[in-house]
Records
---
Amino acid sequence: LIGEVRQLICLDDFEVAARAILPPHYFDFFAGGAEGEWSLAANRSAHLRRVIRYHVLVDVAQRDLSLTLFGSVLPHPIVLAPTAYHRLAHPDGELATARGAAASGAVLTVSTVSTVPLEEVATAGMGSVQWFQLYSHRDRPTTEALVRRADRAGYQVIVITADIPAISRRERDLRNNFSLPPGVRAANFDGSVERVEPIPLTWSDITWIKSLTGRPVVVKGIVRPDDALRAVDAGADGIWVSNHGGRQLDCSIPPIDALEAIVTATDHAVPIVVDGGIRRGTDVVKALALGADVVAIGRPQVWGLAVGGSDGVQRVVEILRDELSIDLALTGCRALSDITRDIVEDY
Ligand SMILES: Cc1cc2nc3c(=O)[nH]c(=O)nc-3n(C[C@H](O)[C@H](O)[C@H](O)COP(=O)(O)O)c2cc1C
């Protein structure tokens, strides 16, 4: 299997390989989007509507991809976005993802609906930076208990997902009659929980959740400058520009299109994460040029996991990192801070 992983040379190769391995209804669960899947496709095409106007004749022999974020020095700006139910992709589930993330220096954001308890995922990723993604579940005491467990387990940032006041219609899952197989469950809840039921959050909940721990709080799912400002007013320490990978509101704006206005409005008050359709080093260059501090990848980590467990996850991150390093050189940049706004243009 490791030999096979080594033959895959770009992130899209991992999707093709994962599709060949996974049962079709699990592949569809991971790959799919909401309703007509317009946003799913648009997230990708939004990157392809931009071009890079590069510098030449800069000494780029040494490149530095590192940055400091929430007090941690990160070797590169690639974060693993929270994704649900990793044991549908690989028997080791989030344990393998955590090991692969740690080996590749990527921040792993562990989902509330992980299939391994969050404490065990934290142990598997020991020594690396991990964030915890929060879905409010059932009621406030249940939600509070989850946040406190994440704090105790050492998760460095609490990511509050804001774009799920209702669960969208995922038509692939409806057609496939998708359900979790026996033995795979949302392991952060007791066995009586049949399915996690996110309760709608409102702005005051951001302040409340932040008050529970001393951890930085990032609000995920923002696509509007006014909402970004409200999040900062509510105490958010970071903004995650995202439309949930096209899985929530269909026809929602691709995050890469929403990014610049949010950067302008918040004026670097807090760090900005962006995700949605990031598959290439050049996508990372474009996102950083438009003002993001880091990028996140959702589906590609799952494809890596399905194809090669922790080695697959590690390889996916390393390929994106290596593309970024080369693309940085070809753009005439030595460091992430050299990627200026004028590098990227609409096409
Ligand atoms: C299979 C799958 C499961 C996801 N589960 C979660 C989740 O549990 N919590 C969450 O905040 N976002 C979740 N997301 C959204 C991702 O965090 C992220 O926003 C999105 O996948 C980024 O787009 P990309 O897949 O094109 O990289 C999920 C996405 C996918 C594809």
---
Amino acid sequence: MEMCLHLFERRVAQDRGFTHYFTGRPCSKGHLRTRRASNKNCLGCISDRASRYREKTPGYKEARSAYDKARWEEKRDSLLAMAKIRYQKNKEKHLEYTRAHWSKNKEKYKGLNKIWRLNNAESVRLSSILRKKRTRQATPKWVNRSEISLIYKEAWRLSIETGIPHHVDHIVPLNGDNVCGLHVPWNLRPIPWLENLKKGKRLDFIVVTASLDDAEATPTLIS
Ligand SMILES: [Zn+2]
């Protein structure tokens, strides 16, 4: 469909084979919008009519959401793939929007998080226990614990020095989806807390780590 946004009268648009035209004059309802060359219909009026129809038709909302649900279930994979492509294409825009939204609503989200933690004290406690257990299980017997504590001290030092809280990040997550990292010095690094939370369980490179009882194996990072 070819759109024409230069100023054209209908006849000119038709002569040139355009499907739409724009005169620069508002319609009788006051829309300054493109019109269809085939029947002069203003696009603003068309969308108004559609929303009036949606509002006055009983059961429209329910039918529409049932249709959307069925479509989602039927075409889930291709819809997801399409969304992914769209996201990749506009990645910078997405990031920019998310950042702006976060910095605008930071206090609100922090407050909500606090309330959630208070209301869900039991799951907070449980996940802390699980995290400690995971860390214990991922710590080989042969590892030098004082080296590990040095990294935690470094995170503490960075937090004080920069004023930004630093967390100790597992480069390969302990509970990754495909690989599991170890709680060993070469899998640990101090990073700003927000970066750590943003990273989650994601892993940007393939890593071969030493096994739990093999002190000789060398970890290899392939970027
Ligand atoms: Zn109109």
